[in-house]
UniProtKB/TrEMBL annotation:
It comes from the Bacteria. Residues 7-240, 257-501 form the ABC transporter domain. The lineage of its organism: Bacteria, Bacillati, Bacillota, Clostridia, Peptostreptococcales. It is a peripheral membrane protein. This is Nucleoside ABC transporter ATP-binding protein.
Length: 503
């Protein structure tokens, strides 16, 4: 029996200005399959799926849905053709209930029977194994529950083609497993599912087929059972990934960063970090594992002097920072790579040279008398571009035009070249492709190996397990446990993140 094709994209092309982002791309989705879409940043994955979701209209090629040609001019056209897209950042109204979010903009009648709608949605959710309370408000829900609402919203409107963009980015291992169980049930009921992701391990776990894009073109479509991670990486970046140098550090008991009974408040005045204590030794990477919003941001900002410490103290090389300003803390040996690259780390309208001297302009090595040595600084910038393989056409152009990976390399390059005693890396690879992720993590390991104390904050537990020498699991702004990677499992850390104890 011939498999039913839900989607056929033939010779798809899309350009922005004079640049083709997708060129002659072929893509097919069958009923009952989970199809992973892989590629580096800028490979054209999101653009291709945005064409399928009606966000963009292709400039070349043909789109067939359920065997018939479809011309999509909006997401509304897409949903009418059975296509739903679940974005990485959810499109929900926090102060409405689950059922109200699901029917919002869909039900056409003026008067609604809330009880009947809630019962209808509950039965519908049980059909697909999507356990929710239709009457619960969204602001009460976990990230995993919100994602289920988004999936239900698409299914309730008739979608049998689902696109999920980085669906596990902020999920715990338990929530990821639940999501994969749900997706498999949906596929078994005849849905076709596309997952855009950077997580190779998850691709190998959930996908039936995998399509790889490189530089806007299709590199190939393969069956999952016929490839391994190494082969997929080669398809994505055109070469084999190098083996990472892992546990070759010199063991030391000398402490570089101390967090002593620290309490910190968030922007709304509520306690975000409560009585937290741990340390990071020189030549060690300590990973912070926790669901987003559990005090990671506030802790990092407090260490950098950007947020007040309510109680306790933080020490760098045994010297307290509580009464010091950010400039003084930098001079103590701190480098900080914030999660908001453009908002906090870099200035988009400045060129790479000016961004690289943001911390150095007042130091002697960047000045001659009262004047900045622009020529010398520019030469240093060229060295950074070469050393960190930053792809930039014009060194004098504003950096806002660069990709996320190149921006992160500029930021890391600036911070690492300071030879810091303590380095805080908050979500350093969020949104980056596999090749750039590997390069960033290698830079962190180099810092650890030269004796820097590295605090690594991430949502990816697999990489936390792989990179860290110790892991601090946090829940509700408190330390739920401190463990070594070789003495625990991802599941145990996930349980600590969820309820503060090993299950």
């Amino acid at each position: 029996m011939k498999e039913k094709r839900l989607v056929s994209m033939k010779g798809i092309g899309k350009k922005f200005g004079d640049k083709w982002v997708n060129e002659q791309v072929e893509f097919e989705l069958r009923a009952g399959e989970i199809h992973a879409l892989l590629g580096e940043n800028g490979a054209g994955k999101s653009t291709l799926m945005n064409i399928l979701a009606g966000v963009y209209k292709q400039d070349a090629g043909q789109l067939l849905l359920h065997g018939k040609e479809a011309i999509l001019t909006s997401p509304k056209d897409a949903i009418q053709n059975g296509v739903g897209m679940i974005h990485q950042h959810f499109k929900l109204v926090e102060n409405l209930t689950a059922s109200e979010n699901i029917i919002l903009g869909y039900k056409k009648t003026f008067f609604l029977n809330r009880k009947n709608i809630s019962e209808e949605i509950l039965k519908f959710s049980q059909k697909y194994g999507l356990s929710i309370n239709p009457n619960d408000y969204v602001y009460h829900m976990s990230v995993g529950e919100k994602q289920r609402i988004e999936i239900l919203k698409a299914l309730y409107r008739g979608a049998d083609i689902l696109i999920l963009d980085e669906p596990t980015a902020v999920l715990t291992p338990q929530e990821t497993k639940e999501l994969f169980d749900i997706l498999r049930k949906m596929a078994d009921r005849g849905c076709g599912i596309v997952i855009i992701t950077h997580k190779m391990k998850e691709v190998m776990e959930i996908a039936d087929r995998i399509t790889v894009l490189r530089k806007g073109r299709k590199e190939g479509t393969v069956l999952k059972r016929e490839v391994d991670e190494q082969r997929l990486t080669e398809m994505m970046i055109g070469k084999y990934a190098s083996e990472r140098k892992m546990k070759d550090r010199q063991v030391t008991n000398e402490v570089g960063l101390e967090i002593e009974n620290v309490t910190i408040k968030n922007d709304k005045g509520f306690v975000a970090v409560e009585n937290m204590s741990f340390d990071v030794k020189k030549g060690e990477i300590v990973g912070i594992a926790g669901i987003s919003g559990n005090g990671q941001k506030e802790l990092a900002e407090a260490i950098a002097g950007l947020r007040e410490i309510e109680k306790g103290n933080i020490k760098i090389d045994h010297e307290g920072i509580k009464e010091k300003n950010p400039r003084q803390i930098i001079d103590m040996g701190l480098s900080y790579v914030p999660e908001d690259r453009m908002g906090m780390g870099l200035v988009g309208n400045m060129d790479i040279t000016d961004n690289l001297i943001l911390k150095d302009y007042r130091k002697k090595k960047a000045r001659k008398g009262i004047f900045i040595q622009k020529k010398k600084v520019r030469e240093n910038a060229k060295d950074v571009i070469d050393q960190f393989e930053i792809k930039i056409e014009n060194i004098d152009a504003p950096i806002r035009t660069l990709s996320g990976g190149n921006l992160q390399k500029i930021l890391l390059g600036r911070e690492i070249l300071e030879d810091p005693k303590v380095l805080i890396a908050a979500y350093p690879v969020r949104g980056l492709d596999i090749a750039t992720t590997e390069a960033v993590y290698d830079l962190l390991l180099e810092q650890r190996n030269r004796g820097c104390a590295v605090l690594f904050i991430s949502e990816d537990l697999d990489y936390i397990m792989q990179l860290s020498d110790r892991i601090v699991a946090i829940e509700g702004g408190k330390v739920a446990g401190i463990v070594k990677p070789d003495e625990t499992t991802v599941e145990e850390i996930g349980m600590m993140m969820l309820d503060g104890q090993v299950g």
